[in-house]
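W.,

You were right to be curious about this one. When I first looked at the sequence I had no strong expectations either way, so I just let the prediction run and decided to look at it fresh. Below is the sequence, 354 residues in total, followed by the output.
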Amino acid sequence: MPKTIMEFCEINSFTDQLIAWQRKQGRHHLPWQINRTAYRVWLSEVMLQQTQVSTVIERYQVFLKKFPTVKALASASIDDVLSEWSGMGYYTRARNLHRCAQVVVTEYQGVFPSDPKLLETLPGIGRSTAAAIAVFAYGQSAAILDGNVKRVLARVWGIQDDLSKNAAVNQLWAHAETLLPHAPEDLVSYTQGLMDFGATCCTQNKPACISQGSITCPFEDVCLAKRFDLIKHIPLKVKKVKVSTVNIDWWVLQYKDKLLLEKRPHQGIWAGLWSFPESIDLPKSAKQLERQVIKHVLTHRVLNIRPIQVTLQRPLTKIPANCEWIELADLKNLGLPTPVRLFLKNLDLIHDDA
């Protein structure tokens, strides 16, 4: 099948207009915009990949307090990192964050490289994140192309290609690089402008051009998606992945001031986190109490979780592999999936300050 070549018509002053828009209507007081070191920029970029800005603003500050430097993060245990990440989901980010910090410390003496190509070789850092670090921390000229930026460029230039395909994305990358400002002092405003414009103006469902708000779009007169009434159709909607339903049991075993928890495998749901065992051999005398089923929605799965609470009078003679008895006081130090943490809070076994 022949490759489709995107056509990018010339839109005068796109870059200059975006820079002007950012300086007037963009965001200027986000925590990671203060003292823009490579570590702080990298941390914010990873957090923002799958988490809303409002959540990241709060969690970013707490994470930095616990791990103020890349060396502090590298020397921490993975359980400490996962515990601090708990509740933000997509835990692969946290594991890559920890691995990346260790590589930066061992191979780069604790200093992130300034070359985007080198940054891209680090665990968990893709091309767009590498570019953001290079621009904001080092003033390098590099193009970003995250989901928001793809949407902005696709709408302004009327691109109706499937942006889940590599061939289309590669052409969009090439176009993004032609839009970079020539003046070094404009790089930060332009890059931040792309992020802000996609997040606050040219949003997925309610862009400024079709909704009434205080933010205005400087490209309404030249945007091809607007001109041809394609705003709701660009980017092209690809077929959604089928969501499956999974039924699981949680065996919530308590003996005195200890809970039996299982360290999840390094692959699959909640990889590397602590949860309840999903099967176990119990003595016949053990009394079981079924709790209300918990429904937990993941990206491609809906979990129907049936917690079965068991209070033991004596410890089990044998426990499953990867399981440990955990003191209640130590639960706050573990990486726990959100539904586990919420369930324990409902039982008053872990508290909000944990």
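Here's what jumped out at me. The chain is about 40% helix and 10% strand. And, maybe more interesting for your project: The longest strand covers residues 244-255.

Coffee later to discuss?

I.
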